[in-house]
Specification:
79% helix, 8 helices, mainly alpha
């Protein structure tokens, strides 16, 4: 009788899973870079006093947060090329992940900005600082460090959402495991390895976020 888990077969397929894991990590890191950057821009635009700017941004954020990520991926993959914008499946997936999580990051940033004591803004006004210098030198240094744990949670969540990329033909690690399973009729080993890889990398990401939070506290990243 064949063993439930064949270690020799697991070692044999590990390089193929490792190559696909690189795609997963790449999509996560680049997607998160888009999310934290675009999210900050959206958060700042939503706080602009001009309603013709803040209102559409608020609608966009709520729309993205209220629609499934998979639907957004399909839209970017199948509809966007009809407008003349051509991207690779991986680039499309990174954009979809980034835009989707940017909407959530924007709300996290907004909570951090609104938690900055009003006296700090009044002091900046008294010093005749420009809005740009007030935002960059006073508000953001106090608003961002406390929300790092929440942003880290979205990093882990994005990493676990990368299997959705297989819907737009990206061969990430879970899709690679299914390809191996369909070719060998053994699913236990590839799926188990994928689960372990996701667990290890998620724990590593959480540890990295905690270290970053501790570093920010050490260098004055608290209010």
């Amino acid at each position: 009788m064949k063993p439930i888990f064949d270690w020799s077969f697991a070692w044999e397929i590990l390089p193929a899973l490792g190559s696909a894991l690189v795609i997963t990590i790449q999509a996560t890191l680049l997607g998160m870079l888009v999310a934290v950057t675009l999210g900050l821009v959206l958060a700042m635009l939503r706080r602009v006093r001009l309603r013709w700017i803040s209102a559409p941004v608020a609608v966009l954020i709520e729309f993205v947060r209220s629609t499934p990520l998979l639907v957004q991926m399909y839209f970017l993959f199948y509809v966007l090329p009809q407008t003349g914008v051509q991207m690779s499946p991986l680039a499309t997936g990174i954009l979809a992940l980034g835009v989707h999580y940017a909407a959530y990051c924007a709300e996290v940033y907004r909570a951090g900005i609104e938690a900055v004591p009003r006296g700090q803004l009044e002091a900046a006004t008294a010093l005749n600082l420009s809005p740009w210098r007030t935002a960059v030198g006073v508000v953001l240094p106090q608003a961002i460090p406390p929300v790092v744990p929440a942003l880290g949670n979205y990093l882990v969540a994005m990493f676990k959402d990368t299997p959705l990329l297989s819907a737009i033909t990206v061969v990430e690690v879970l899709q690679q495991s299914k390809i191996i399973g369909s070719a060998t009729f053994r699913y236990t080993e590839p799926l188990t390895l994928v689960g372990v890889l996701f667990l290890v990398l998620s724990l590593a990401a959480a540890w990295g976020v905690r270290r970053l939070e501790a570093w920010l506290k050490q260098f004055g990243g608290t209010r």
